[in-house]
Write a structure and sequence with these properties.
Oligomer: heterodimer
Helix content of chain B: 40-55%
Structural class of chain A: mainly alpha
Number of helices of chain B: 18
Strand content of chain B: 15-25%
CATH topology of the domain at 48-75 and 111-231 in chain B: Rossmann fold
Mean pLDDT of chain A: 83
CATH architecture of the domain at 48-75 and 111-231 in chain B: 3-Layer(aba) Sandwich
Structural class of chain B: alpha/beta
Mean pLDDT of chain B: 86
Shape of chain B: globular
Largest interface: A-B, 59 and 88 residues
CATH class of the domain at 48-75 and 111-231 in chain B: Alpha Beta
Low-confidence stretches of chain B: 302-339, 446-455
Strand order of the largest sheet of chain A: 1-2
Number of strands of chain A: 2
Number of domains of chain A: 1
Radius of gyration of chain B: 23 Å
Largest sheet of chain A: 2 strands, antiparallel
Chain lengths: 87, 455
Protein backbone atom coordinates (compact mmCIF):
# COMPACT_ATOMS: atom_id res chain seq x y z
CA UNK A 1 0.00 0.00 0.00
CA UNK A 2 1.39 3.34 -1.02
CA UNK A 3 -0.01 4.93 2.15
CA UNK A 4 1.80 2.51 4.50
CA UNK A 5 4.34 5.00 5.77
CA UNK A 6 2.43 8.24 5.25
CA UNK A 7 2.18 8.98 8.97
CA UNK A 8 5.93 8.94 9.67
CA UNK A 9 7.52 12.34 10.26
CA UNK A 10 10.93 13.74 9.44
CA UNK A 11 12.65 17.10 9.60
CA UNK A 12 13.16 18.22 5.99
CA UNK A 13 16.47 20.08 5.67
CA UNK A 14 15.45 21.45 2.29
CA UNK A 15 12.21 23.09 3.41
CA UNK A 16 13.27 23.58 7.03
CA UNK A 17 10.20 22.03 8.63
CA UNK A 18 8.62 18.80 9.79
CA UNK A 19 7.01 16.76 7.02
CA UNK A 20 5.30 13.42 6.75
CA UNK A 21 6.38 10.69 4.35
CA UNK A 22 3.20 11.40 2.42
CA UNK A 23 4.80 14.62 1.15
CA UNK A 24 8.16 13.03 0.38
CA UNK A 25 6.61 10.35 -1.85
CA UNK A 26 4.71 12.84 -4.04
CA UNK A 27 6.52 16.19 -3.92
CA UNK A 28 7.72 16.19 -7.54
CA UNK A 29 4.38 16.36 -9.35
CA UNK A 30 3.18 13.11 -7.74
CA UNK A 31 6.65 11.55 -7.97
CA UNK A 32 8.99 11.06 -5.00
CA UNK A 33 11.35 13.77 -3.79
CA UNK A 34 14.84 13.33 -5.16
CA UNK A 35 16.19 13.06 -1.59
CA UNK A 36 13.70 10.40 -0.48
CA UNK A 37 16.20 7.55 -0.59
CA UNK A 38 18.81 9.34 1.48
CA UNK A 39 16.37 10.70 4.02
CA UNK A 40 14.35 7.54 4.60
CA UNK A 41 16.68 4.61 3.92
CA UNK A 42 17.24 3.94 7.61
CA UNK A 43 13.59 4.10 8.57
CA UNK A 44 11.60 2.28 5.91
CA UNK A 45 12.33 -0.32 3.21
CA UNK A 46 12.83 2.34 0.56
CA UNK A 47 13.83 -0.02 -2.26
CA UNK A 48 10.79 -2.27 -2.03
CA UNK A 49 8.47 0.69 -1.45
CA UNK A 50 9.61 2.42 -4.63
CA UNK A 51 9.66 -0.78 -6.66
CA UNK A 52 6.13 -1.71 -5.62
CA UNK A 53 4.55 1.69 -6.11
CA UNK A 54 6.29 3.33 -9.06
CA UNK A 55 7.11 2.31 -12.61
CA UNK A 56 10.63 2.30 -13.95
CA UNK A 57 9.76 5.40 -16.00
CA UNK A 58 8.52 7.18 -12.88
CA UNK A 59 11.69 6.34 -11.01
CA UNK A 60 13.88 7.42 -13.88
CA UNK A 61 12.01 10.73 -13.94
CA UNK A 62 12.35 11.16 -10.18
CA UNK A 63 15.92 10.01 -9.61
CA UNK A 64 17.61 9.81 -13.00
CA UNK A 65 20.62 11.88 -13.93
CA UNK A 66 22.84 14.07 -11.84
CA UNK A 67 21.12 16.68 -9.71
CA UNK A 68 21.63 20.22 -10.91
CA UNK A 69 23.21 23.07 -8.98
CA UNK A 70 21.05 26.01 -7.98
CA UNK A 71 22.56 28.20 -10.68
CA UNK A 72 21.98 25.55 -13.35
CA UNK A 73 18.35 25.30 -12.29
CA UNK A 74 17.95 29.07 -12.43
CA UNK A 75 19.32 29.14 -15.98
CA UNK A 76 17.11 26.24 -16.98
CA UNK A 77 14.06 28.19 -15.83
CA UNK A 78 15.27 31.33 -17.59
CA UNK A 79 15.77 29.39 -20.82
CA UNK A 80 12.29 27.86 -20.55
CA UNK A 81 10.72 31.28 -19.95
CA UNK A 82 12.56 32.84 -22.90
CA UNK A 83 11.51 29.96 -25.17
CA UNK A 84 7.87 30.48 -24.20
CA UNK A 85 7.96 34.22 -24.93
CA UNK A 86 5.99 35.07 -28.08
CA UNK A 87 7.90 35.97 -31.21
CA UNK B 1 33.43 39.14 37.09
CA UNK B 2 34.08 37.01 34.02
CA UNK B 3 32.19 38.49 31.05
CA UNK B 4 29.35 36.46 29.58
CA UNK B 5 28.90 38.60 26.48
CA UNK B 6 31.66 40.15 24.42
CA UNK B 7 30.23 43.18 22.69
CA UNK B 8 31.42 45.52 19.97
CA UNK B 9 30.40 49.15 19.91
CA UNK B 10 28.62 50.36 16.78
CA UNK B 11 31.83 52.12 15.75
CA UNK B 12 33.69 48.82 15.92
CA UNK B 13 31.37 47.05 13.48
CA UNK B 14 33.32 45.97 10.36
CA UNK B 15 32.97 48.35 7.41
CA UNK B 16 33.84 45.81 4.73
CA UNK B 17 32.80 42.31 3.71
CA UNK B 18 35.50 39.72 3.16
CA UNK B 19 35.68 38.04 -0.26
CA UNK B 20 37.45 34.68 -0.05
CA UNK B 21 37.62 34.41 -3.84
CA UNK B 22 40.76 36.56 -3.55
CA UNK B 23 42.49 33.99 -1.37
CA UNK B 24 41.26 30.57 -2.49
CA UNK B 25 44.10 28.16 -3.23
CA UNK B 26 42.09 26.67 -6.07
CA UNK B 27 40.42 29.42 -8.10
CA UNK B 28 36.70 28.94 -8.61
CA UNK B 29 35.57 28.02 -12.08
CA UNK B 30 32.69 30.15 -13.34
CA UNK B 31 29.44 28.23 -13.73
CA UNK B 32 28.63 27.22 -17.30
CA UNK B 33 25.44 28.26 -18.99
CA UNK B 34 23.48 25.05 -19.66
CA UNK B 35 22.41 26.28 -23.10
CA UNK B 36 25.68 27.65 -24.47
CA UNK B 37 28.11 25.71 -22.25
CA UNK B 38 30.05 28.96 -22.01
CA UNK B 39 30.94 30.64 -18.69
CA UNK B 40 28.02 32.60 -17.31
CA UNK B 41 28.48 36.31 -17.92
CA UNK B 42 26.87 39.48 -16.54
CA UNK B 43 24.37 39.58 -19.41
CA UNK B 44 23.09 36.13 -18.45
CA UNK B 45 22.46 37.25 -14.88
CA UNK B 46 21.10 40.72 -15.67
CA UNK B 47 17.46 39.62 -16.09
CA UNK B 48 17.32 38.47 -12.48
CA UNK B 49 19.93 40.36 -10.45
CA UNK B 50 20.93 44.05 -10.29
CA UNK B 51 24.40 44.86 -11.62
CA UNK B 52 26.09 45.61 -8.26
CA UNK B 53 25.24 42.10 -7.06
CA UNK B 54 26.42 40.57 -10.34
CA UNK B 55 29.72 42.44 -9.94
CA UNK B 56 30.07 41.10 -6.41
CA UNK B 57 29.26 37.60 -7.63
CA UNK B 58 32.39 37.54 -9.81
CA UNK B 59 34.60 40.01 -7.92
CA UNK B 60 38.13 38.99 -6.93
CA UNK B 61 38.58 42.04 -4.66
CA UNK B 62 39.52 40.87 -1.16
CA UNK B 63 37.48 43.42 0.79
CA UNK B 64 34.36 45.16 -0.45
CA UNK B 65 33.02 48.28 1.28
CA UNK B 66 29.64 47.96 2.96
CA UNK B 67 27.54 50.91 1.77
CA UNK B 68 26.62 53.43 4.46
CA UNK B 69 22.82 52.86 4.09
CA UNK B 70 23.38 49.13 4.65
CA UNK B 71 25.53 49.81 7.72
CA UNK B 72 22.75 52.01 9.10
CA UNK B 73 20.23 49.19 8.72
CA UNK B 74 22.65 46.61 10.14
CA UNK B 75 22.73 48.71 13.31
CA UNK B 76 19.15 47.65 14.03
CA UNK B 77 20.62 44.41 15.40
CA UNK B 78 24.35 44.44 14.77
CA UNK B 79 27.00 44.02 16.04
CA UNK B 80 25.61 40.75 17.34
CA UNK B 81 26.96 39.55 20.69
CA UNK B 82 29.57 36.86 21.08
CA UNK B 83 28.53 34.87 24.12
CA UNK B 84 30.41 32.42 26.32
CA UNK B 85 28.29 29.31 26.98
CA UNK B 86 29.35 28.89 30.61
CA UNK B 87 26.25 26.95 31.64
CA UNK B 88 26.67 24.44 28.84
CA UNK B 89 30.36 24.03 29.68
CA UNK B 90 29.46 23.38 33.29
CA UNK B 91 26.73 20.92 32.35
CA UNK B 92 29.16 19.00 30.14
CA UNK B 93 31.95 19.26 32.73
CA UNK B 94 34.29 20.11 29.88
CA UNK B 95 37.53 22.08 29.97
CA UNK B 96 36.58 23.48 26.55
CA UNK B 97 35.64 27.13 26.21
CA UNK B 98 32.51 27.47 24.10
CA UNK B 99 31.59 30.75 22.41
CA UNK B 100 28.55 31.34 20.24
CA UNK B 101 27.80 34.16 17.84
CA UNK B 102 24.14 34.96 18.41
CA UNK B 103 22.57 35.68 15.00
CA UNK B 104 19.12 34.89 16.36
CA UNK B 105 18.70 38.46 17.59
CA UNK B 106 17.95 39.90 14.14
CA UNK B 107 14.36 41.06 13.55
CA UNK B 108 13.68 37.97 11.42
CA UNK B 109 15.34 35.74 14.01
CA UNK B 110 18.20 34.40 11.92
CA UNK B 111 21.35 35.32 9.98
CA UNK B 112 19.35 35.77 6.76
CA UNK B 113 18.89 39.57 7.03
CA UNK B 114 22.69 39.99 6.74
CA UNK B 115 22.26 39.42 2.99
CA UNK B 116 18.60 40.37 2.60
CA UNK B 117 19.39 43.97 3.58
CA UNK B 118 22.22 44.54 1.04
CA UNK B 119 20.25 42.66 -1.61
CA UNK B 120 17.30 45.02 -1.12
CA UNK B 121 19.61 48.03 -1.04
CA UNK B 122 21.42 47.20 -4.29
CA UNK B 123 18.09 46.53 -5.98
CA UNK B 124 16.77 49.85 -4.74
CA UNK B 125 19.68 51.91 -6.10
CA UNK B 126 19.47 50.01 -9.40
CA UNK B 127 15.87 51.05 -10.00
CA UNK B 128 14.16 47.82 -9.01
CA UNK B 129 10.64 48.39 -7.67
CA UNK B 130 9.77 44.87 -6.62
CA UNK B 131 11.52 41.59 -5.84
CA UNK B 132 10.14 38.09 -6.24
CA UNK B 133 11.57 35.22 -4.30
CA UNK B 134 10.74 31.76 -3.05
CA UNK B 135 10.85 30.38 0.44
CA UNK B 136 10.58 26.95 1.98
CA UNK B 137 9.51 27.27 5.57
CA UNK B 138 9.75 31.05 5.47
CA UNK B 139 13.09 32.01 7.00
CA UNK B 140 14.40 33.65 3.84
CA UNK B 141 11.02 35.06 2.84
CA UNK B 142 10.60 36.79 6.18
CA UNK B 143 14.16 38.19 6.05
CA UNK B 144 13.59 39.66 2.59
CA UNK B 145 10.18 41.01 3.62
CA UNK B 146 11.90 42.82 6.49
CA UNK B 147 14.60 44.20 4.20
CA UNK B 148 12.03 45.26 1.59
CA UNK B 149 10.18 47.25 4.23
CA UNK B 150 13.40 49.08 5.14
CA UNK B 151 14.02 50.22 1.55
CA UNK B 152 10.44 50.67 0.32
CA UNK B 153 10.46 47.73 -2.09
CA UNK B 154 7.49 45.55 -2.97
CA UNK B 155 8.25 41.95 -2.07
CA UNK B 156 6.39 38.94 -3.39
CA UNK B 157 7.17 35.58 -1.82
CA UNK B 158 6.19 32.22 -3.31
CA UNK B 159 5.98 29.95 -0.30
CA UNK B 160 5.84 26.18 -0.80
CA UNK B 161 2.18 25.32 -0.26
CA UNK B 162 2.72 22.72 2.45
CA UNK B 163 4.71 25.26 4.47
CA UNK B 164 2.17 27.99 3.77
CA UNK B 165 -0.57 25.80 5.21
CA UNK B 166 1.37 24.36 8.12
CA UNK B 167 3.59 27.26 9.19
CA UNK B 168 1.41 30.37 9.37
CA UNK B 169 3.69 32.38 11.64
CA UNK B 170 6.44 33.00 9.10
CA UNK B 171 3.95 34.16 6.47
CA UNK B 172 2.29 36.41 9.02
CA UNK B 173 5.70 37.92 9.72
CA UNK B 174 6.05 38.58 5.99
CA UNK B 175 2.59 40.19 5.88
CA UNK B 176 3.46 42.33 8.89
CA UNK B 177 6.50 43.69 7.04
CA UNK B 178 4.26 44.45 4.06
CA UNK B 179 5.20 41.59 1.72
CA UNK B 180 2.77 39.55 -0.31
CA UNK B 181 3.12 35.86 0.43
CA UNK B 182 1.20 33.35 -1.65
CA UNK B 183 1.20 29.57 -1.71
CA UNK B 184 3.12 27.88 -4.53
CA UNK B 185 2.02 26.48 -6.95
CA UNK B 186 -0.05 29.56 -7.64
CA UNK B 187 -2.33 30.73 -10.45
CA UNK B 188 -0.11 33.82 -10.83
CA UNK B 189 2.46 32.19 -13.11
CA UNK B 190 2.42 29.84 -16.11
CA UNK B 191 4.62 27.40 -14.17
CA UNK B 192 2.18 27.38 -11.28
CA UNK B 193 -0.92 27.10 -13.48
CA UNK B 194 0.56 24.11 -15.30
CA UNK B 195 1.13 22.28 -12.03
CA UNK B 196 -2.33 23.18 -10.70
CA UNK B 197 -4.00 21.88 -13.89
CA UNK B 198 -2.33 18.52 -13.32
CA UNK B 199 -2.88 18.45 -9.57
CA UNK B 200 -5.07 21.12 -7.97
CA UNK B 201 -4.01 19.83 -4.53
CA UNK B 202 -0.29 19.88 -5.20
CA UNK B 203 1.61 20.49 -1.93
CA UNK B 204 4.28 22.32 -3.92
CA UNK B 205 8.04 22.00 -3.79
CA UNK B 206 11.03 24.29 -3.59
CA UNK B 207 11.70 23.66 -7.30
CA UNK B 208 8.21 24.83 -8.29
CA UNK B 209 8.48 27.89 -6.05
CA UNK B 210 11.85 28.84 -7.56
CA UNK B 211 10.48 28.55 -11.09
CA UNK B 212 7.49 30.71 -10.16
CA UNK B 213 9.63 33.40 -8.55
CA UNK B 214 12.00 33.55 -11.51
CA UNK B 215 9.14 33.68 -14.00
CA UNK B 216 7.52 36.46 -11.98
CA UNK B 217 10.77 38.46 -11.82
CA UNK B 218 11.52 38.11 -15.53
CA UNK B 219 8.00 38.83 -16.80
CA UNK B 220 7.03 41.71 -14.49
CA UNK B 221 8.40 45.21 -15.25
CA UNK B 222 10.96 46.64 -12.80
CA UNK B 223 11.22 43.31 -10.98
CA UNK B 224 14.18 41.21 -9.96
CA UNK B 225 14.75 37.90 -8.23
CA UNK B 226 16.62 37.38 -4.98
CA UNK B 227 18.29 34.33 -3.51
CA UNK B 228 19.33 34.00 0.12
CA UNK B 229 21.88 31.19 -0.02
CA UNK B 230 24.46 29.37 -2.17
CA UNK B 231 25.66 32.29 -4.33
CA UNK B 232 29.03 33.99 -3.86
CA UNK B 233 27.59 37.43 -3.08
CA UNK B 234 25.32 35.94 -0.41
CA UNK B 235 28.29 34.34 1.35
CA UNK B 236 30.19 37.61 0.98
CA UNK B 237 27.48 39.54 2.85
CA UNK B 238 27.42 36.98 5.64
CA UNK B 239 31.13 37.41 6.39
CA UNK B 240 30.28 40.26 8.73
CA UNK B 241 29.53 37.49 11.25
CA UNK B 242 33.02 36.03 11.24
CA UNK B 243 34.74 39.40 11.09
CA UNK B 244 32.83 40.61 14.13
CA UNK B 245 33.69 37.37 15.93
CA UNK B 246 37.38 37.87 15.17
CA UNK B 247 37.30 41.35 16.70
CA UNK B 248 35.37 40.14 19.72
CA UNK B 249 37.75 37.26 20.39
CA UNK B 250 40.71 39.56 19.92
CA UNK B 251 39.28 41.81 22.65
CA UNK B 252 39.60 38.98 25.19
CA UNK B 253 42.83 37.54 23.82
CA UNK B 254 41.23 34.39 22.42
CA UNK B 255 41.46 32.55 19.12
CA UNK B 256 39.35 29.47 18.29
CA UNK B 257 40.78 26.00 17.84
CA UNK B 258 37.53 24.86 16.25
CA UNK B 259 34.95 26.83 14.22
CA UNK B 260 31.58 25.15 13.68
CA UNK B 261 28.47 26.00 11.67
CA UNK B 262 25.52 24.16 10.21
CA UNK B 263 25.45 24.04 6.43
CA UNK B 264 22.29 23.76 4.38
CA UNK B 265 23.05 26.08 1.50
CA UNK B 266 26.25 27.14 3.23
CA UNK B 267 25.66 30.82 3.92
CA UNK B 268 25.54 31.00 7.71
CA UNK B 269 28.42 28.55 8.01
CA UNK B 270 30.47 30.50 5.49
CA UNK B 271 29.58 33.78 7.16
CA UNK B 272 31.27 32.72 10.36
CA UNK B 273 33.95 30.48 8.89
CA UNK B 274 35.39 32.24 5.83
CA UNK B 275 37.36 34.93 7.72
CA UNK B 276 38.90 32.11 9.78
CA UNK B 277 39.53 30.03 6.65
CA UNK B 278 41.55 33.02 5.43
CA UNK B 279 43.69 32.67 8.55
CA UNK B 280 43.99 28.93 7.93
CA UNK B 281 45.16 29.53 4.36
CA UNK B 282 47.78 31.86 5.88
CA UNK B 283 49.01 29.08 8.16
CA UNK B 284 46.87 29.19 11.33
CA UNK B 285 46.10 25.82 12.89
CA UNK B 286 42.34 25.68 13.14
CA UNK B 287 39.62 23.12 12.50
CA UNK B 288 36.67 24.37 10.48
CA UNK B 289 33.65 22.06 10.55
CA UNK B 290 30.52 22.28 8.36
CA UNK B 291 27.68 20.19 9.77
CA UNK B 292 24.84 18.67 7.78
CA UNK B 293 22.04 16.16 8.41
CA UNK B 294 23.09 12.53 8.10
CA UNK B 295 19.69 11.89 6.54
CA UNK B 296 20.33 14.19 3.61
CA UNK B 297 24.08 14.28 3.13
CA UNK B 298 25.35 16.42 0.30
CA UNK B 299 28.84 17.16 1.60
CA UNK B 300 29.79 13.95 3.38
CA UNK B 301 28.41 11.45 0.88
CA UNK B 302 27.06 13.39 -2.05
CA UNK B 303 23.50 12.90 -3.20
CA UNK B 304 21.98 9.55 -4.00
CA UNK B 305 22.03 9.11 -7.72
CA UNK B 306 20.39 6.37 -9.69
CA UNK B 307 22.63 5.40 -12.55
CA UNK B 308 20.84 3.22 -15.02
CA UNK B 309 22.55 0.16 -16.35
CA UNK B 310 22.22 1.01 -19.99
CA UNK B 311 23.80 4.43 -19.68
CA UNK B 312 26.60 4.00 -17.18
CA UNK B 313 29.69 2.03 -18.10
CA UNK B 314 30.67 1.51 -14.48
CA UNK B 315 27.46 -0.28 -13.56
CA UNK B 316 28.98 -3.77 -13.17
CA UNK B 317 31.35 -2.37 -10.57
CA UNK B 318 28.64 -0.78 -8.50
CA UNK B 319 26.76 -2.38 -5.65
CA UNK B 320 23.36 -3.52 -6.86
CA UNK B 321 20.12 -3.30 -4.96
CA UNK B 322 16.63 -4.35 -5.90
CA UNK B 323 13.55 -2.24 -6.33
CA UNK B 324 11.35 -5.25 -6.90
CA UNK B 325 10.83 -7.25 -10.05
CA UNK B 326 10.25 -4.39 -12.42
CA UNK B 327 13.21 -2.24 -11.61
CA UNK B 328 16.86 -2.92 -10.91
CA UNK B 329 18.82 0.31 -10.65
CA UNK B 330 22.06 0.88 -8.82
CA UNK B 331 21.67 3.49 -6.14
CA UNK B 332 25.04 4.97 -5.37
CA UNK B 333 26.34 7.77 -3.27
CA UNK B 334 28.05 10.00 -5.78
CA UNK B 335 30.52 10.97 -3.11
CA UNK B 336 32.41 14.18 -3.70
CA UNK B 337 31.11 14.49 -7.21
CA UNK B 338 28.32 16.94 -6.92
CA UNK B 339 26.83 19.07 -4.19
CA UNK B 340 23.64 20.29 -5.76
CA UNK B 341 22.32 22.30 -2.85
CA UNK B 342 25.56 23.60 -1.41
CA UNK B 343 27.46 26.81 -2.10
CA UNK B 344 30.21 26.16 -4.67
CA UNK B 345 32.73 28.08 -2.52
CA UNK B 346 32.10 25.74 0.42
CA UNK B 347 32.37 22.69 -1.87
CA UNK B 348 35.72 23.85 -3.24
CA UNK B 349 37.10 24.53 0.25
CA UNK B 350 36.07 21.01 1.26
CA UNK B 351 37.90 19.61 -1.76
CA UNK B 352 40.93 21.72 -0.75
CA UNK B 353 40.70 20.21 2.75
CA UNK B 354 40.30 23.57 4.43
CA UNK B 355 36.84 22.64 5.69
CA UNK B 356 35.80 19.33 7.19
CA UNK B 357 32.20 18.24 6.51
CA UNK B 358 30.46 16.24 9.20
CA UNK B 359 27.02 14.61 9.35
CA UNK B 360 24.79 14.15 12.40
CA UNK B 361 21.56 12.23 12.93
CA UNK B 362 18.37 14.13 13.64
CA UNK B 363 17.76 12.69 17.11
CA UNK B 364 21.21 13.82 18.17
CA UNK B 365 20.50 17.31 16.84
CA UNK B 366 17.26 17.73 18.78
CA UNK B 367 18.87 16.33 21.93
CA UNK B 368 21.57 18.98 21.53
CA UNK B 369 18.98 21.71 21.03
CA UNK B 370 17.13 20.71 24.18
CA UNK B 371 20.37 20.57 26.18
CA UNK B 372 21.24 24.01 24.88
CA UNK B 373 17.82 25.45 25.78
CA UNK B 374 18.02 23.98 29.29
CA UNK B 375 21.49 25.41 29.92
CA UNK B 376 21.93 28.57 27.84
CA UNK B 377 18.23 29.42 27.69
CA UNK B 378 17.78 30.28 24.03
CA UNK B 379 15.78 27.76 21.96
CA UNK B 380 17.73 27.12 18.75
CA UNK B 381 16.30 26.62 15.26
CA UNK B 382 16.37 22.96 14.17
CA UNK B 383 19.12 23.63 11.61
CA UNK B 384 21.21 25.37 14.28
CA UNK B 385 20.90 22.21 16.36
CA UNK B 386 23.09 20.40 13.85
CA UNK B 387 26.01 22.68 14.72
CA UNK B 388 25.27 22.41 18.44
CA UNK B 389 25.39 18.60 18.26
CA UNK B 390 28.97 18.83 17.02
CA UNK B 391 29.81 21.49 19.62
CA UNK B 392 28.69 19.10 22.34
CA UNK B 393 30.52 16.18 20.77
CA UNK B 394 33.76 18.20 20.50
CA UNK B 395 33.39 19.51 24.06
CA UNK B 396 33.01 15.93 25.34
CA UNK B 397 36.10 14.96 23.37
CA UNK B 398 37.98 17.77 25.09
CA UNK B 399 36.89 16.31 28.43
CA UNK B 400 38.09 12.83 27.49
CA UNK B 401 41.42 14.15 26.25
CA UNK B 402 41.81 16.76 28.97
CA UNK B 403 42.25 19.54 26.42
CA UNK B 404 40.92 23.07 26.95
CA UNK B 405 40.15 23.93 23.35
CA UNK B 406 38.29 27.06 22.33
CA UNK B 407 35.19 26.29 20.29
CA UNK B 408 33.33 28.92 18.28
CA UNK B 409 29.89 28.22 16.81
CA UNK B 410 27.43 30.19 14.74
CA UNK B 411 24.10 30.24 16.59
CA UNK B 412 22.32 30.93 13.33
CA UNK B 413 18.75 31.40 14.49
CA UNK B 414 16.12 30.87 17.14
CA UNK B 415 13.51 28.15 16.97
CA UNK B 416 10.51 29.99 18.36
CA UNK B 417 8.46 29.40 15.23
CA UNK B 418 9.70 25.83 14.90
CA UNK B 419 8.20 24.40 18.06
CA UNK B 420 6.23 21.76 16.16
CA UNK B 421 9.54 20.16 15.25
CA UNK B 422 10.44 20.02 18.94
CA UNK B 423 6.98 18.62 19.64
CA UNK B 424 7.58 15.79 17.16
CA UNK B 425 10.86 15.07 18.95
CA UNK B 426 9.23 15.04 22.39
CA UNK B 427 6.47 12.75 21.13
CA UNK B 428 9.02 10.24 19.82
CA UNK B 429 8.08 10.70 16.16
CA UNK B 430 11.65 11.14 14.95
CA UNK B 431 13.20 7.81 15.82
CA UNK B 432 16.07 6.91 13.52
CA UNK B 433 15.03 3.29 13.04
CA UNK B 434 11.40 2.29 12.68
CA UNK B 435 11.62 -0.82 10.55
CA UNK B 436 9.73 -3.74 12.02
CA UNK B 437 11.66 -7.01 11.87
CA UNK B 438 9.37 -8.59 9.28
CA UNK B 439 9.92 -5.62 6.95
CA UNK B 440 13.68 -5.96 7.26
CA UNK B 441 13.45 -9.67 6.49
CA UNK B 442 11.17 -9.00 3.52
CA UNK B 443 13.60 -6.42 2.22
CA UNK B 444 16.60 -8.69 2.66
CA UNK B 445 14.80 -11.52 0.89
CA UNK B 446 14.19 -9.29 -2.10
CA UNK B 447 17.94 -8.63 -2.28
CA UNK B 448 19.01 -12.24 -1.87
CA UNK B 449 19.63 -12.97 -5.55
CA UNK B 450 21.63 -9.87 -6.29
CA UNK B 451 25.40 -9.39 -6.07
CA UNK B 452 26.55 -7.99 -2.75
CA UNK B 453 28.86 -5.02 -2.53
CA UNK B 454 32.31 -5.58 -1.05
CA UNK B 455 32.45 -3.05 1.76
Amino acid sequence: MIESFDHLEIYCPQLGMMLTFNYCRRSQSSLPCRNLMGCWEERIPVDSFLGENFSREDLEAAFGGIPKTRMERIFDYLTQINEKKPG
Amino acid sequence: MVPKKILLTEDEMPRQWYNILADMPTPMQPPLHPGTHQPVGPDDLAPIFPMPLIEQEVSQQRFIDIPEPVLEKYLIWRPSPLVRAYALEEFLQTPAKIYFKNEGISPAGSHKPNTAVPSAYYNKISGTKRIATETGAGQWGSALAFAGALFGLEIKVYMVRISYDQKPYRRLMMNTWGATCIPSPSPDTKAGRTILEQDPNSPGSLGIAISEAIEDAVTTPNSKYSLGSVLNHVLLHQTIIGQEAQKQLQKIGEYPDIVIGCAGGGSNFAGLALPFVRDKIAGKKIEVIAVEPASCPTMTKGPFVYDFGDTVQMTPLLPMYSLGHTFMPAPIHAGGLRYHGMAPIVCQLILDKLIEPRAVHQLETFAAGVTWARTEGHIPAPETNHALAVVISEAKKCKEEGKAKTILVNWSGHGLVDMMAYNAYFEGKLTDFELPDEEIQKSLKALANFPKPKL
